[in-house]
Amino acid sequence: xxxxxxxxxxxxxxxxxxxxxxxxxxxxxxxxxxxxxxxxxxxxxxxxxxxxxxxxxxxxxxxxxxxxxxxxxxxxxxxxxxxxxxxxxxxxxxxxxxxxxxxxxxxxxxxxxxxxxxxxxxxxxxxxxxxxxxxxxxxxxxxxxxxxxxxxxxxxxxxxxxxxxxxxxxxxx
Length: 173
Prior knowledge:
By secondary structure, this protein is an all-alpha fold. The chain has one domain (16-172). It has six helices and no strands.
């Protein structure tokens, strides 16, 4: 039996709904660590990247994270469809890249980064296990999995570019 038991028309089990909710649970826990307990992500990021500090506004953080939560909700809302599985992998990839960002920041600064614990303990294992299960079982093609990885990496490249752009616009204003 598969470790994570992804939902497909041929694999209806009681564990299936849990699999579809795992990215939402991981994202929620990560947001709690970053903004509630212990919190402090916005202030930490402004110290970590002072040149981009002006781009980290409350409105920006709310919008970006609301979009992330909506994407994380798509797998359970879409059921066992191919799109649900693809979105599952996209969220897992975004989370894994985010975890690597936090780990790199901890190595660079030798200080805690709000989000590193959930990134390391939830995002990384979830993405490794999920990718393995979905691809190895044939539920998702390798091509779809690679596209999801590209989206995950692309999201963070876009985010860094957007932070630089916004900070530059704020300096010029």
